[in-house]
Structures are given as structure tokens and as C-alpha cells.
Amino acid sequence: MKIDKSIIKELSDYLKEFNLTEIEITEKDTKIKVSKNNISISNQPTITSPSVNTQNKNVSTKVNIKSGTEITSPIIGTAYHSPEPGAKKFVEVGKKIKKGDTIMIVEAMKTMNHVPSTADGVVKEICVEDGHPVEFGQTIIILE
Do 29 and 93 reside in the same domain of the chain? Predict the structure, then answer.
């Protein structure tokens, strides 16, 4: 199998340009995946190259130790902190909330889903930026 290095270079450039951590391309039975930490190429049976880091030599890993009650996203979508642009946010750091209060909206397939708090507490940290994507089970808020 001949590897076209220009494709890897182009994908690496996209990582920087769009501030991505990972990008993957698939053509027929070949899959090329480039991430900030490694590059892997597979052709049916998975063949993974050792970690290659050509552009980010000083990548530091930040370990977040989260203490408190974590509230997670019940669905995949885009998180919004307020009911509409410019409106008051549902929660802010330091605000006391009760179980059942709406803490965020997650838009999925053009449907706005209100996310309720699963516990009482004071907002310690908001883990998701307004308008950014969230995954199922991703921590969106931490309560004290």
C-alpha cells in the first residue's frame, strides 16, 4: 500500500486551520485518520502507525479533576445557555439551582430540548461553551 503524504499534510493543515483535534477521511477500503496526537492508516485489517507528532511538539495534556455533582447531556446536539440570543442565561457560576430547573438547551435535529438539573446545588462550573456541540453523557455543569 502506497501512502500519499500530501493527503496527510493537507489533513494536518485542516487540523490547524479549523482548530480540530482529529479528522478522518475514507476512500474505498482505505481510511486515514489524523489527530494532534497520532496518525493512523487502515486498509481492512487495522494498521496503526506509532504516534507521530510532526507539528505539535509541545502538546501538554491538562488533567481536569472534577469534584462535585456532574450533570451530563442527555443527548447529542448543540448547547445553548439561554432561550434565545441575548437573553438571560439559565444558570451562571455561583447561582443556586434546584432539581428540575432548566440549566441549558440542547438543540438536536432542529428541536430545542430543555435539560433539567438532576440535583440541587450551586453552579461550580459550566463545562460547555454557548453554541458548541455536546455529546451524550458529556459533563455540561458541575454543582457543589
Answer: no
How many domains does the chain divide into?
A: 2
**Does the residue 81 lie in any domain?**
yes
Dihedral sign computed on CA atoms, order 99, 104, 109, 111: positive
CA 121 to CA 142: how far, in whole Å?
A: 9
Contacts of the segment 88-95: beta carbons below 8 A, 24+ positions apart:
91/123, 91/126, 91/141, 92/123, 92/126, 93/123, 93/124, 93/125, 93/126, 94/122, 94/123, 95/122, 95/123
Q: Same structural domain for residues 139 and 76?
A: yes
Which residues constitute the domain of residue 22?
Answer: 5-43
Which tens digits make up the pLDDT trace of 32-84?
A: 778 776 545 555 444 444 444 444 444 433 444 456 788 888 889 999 999 88
pTM: 0.53
- Rounded to 5 degrees, φ, ψ at 8 are -60, -45
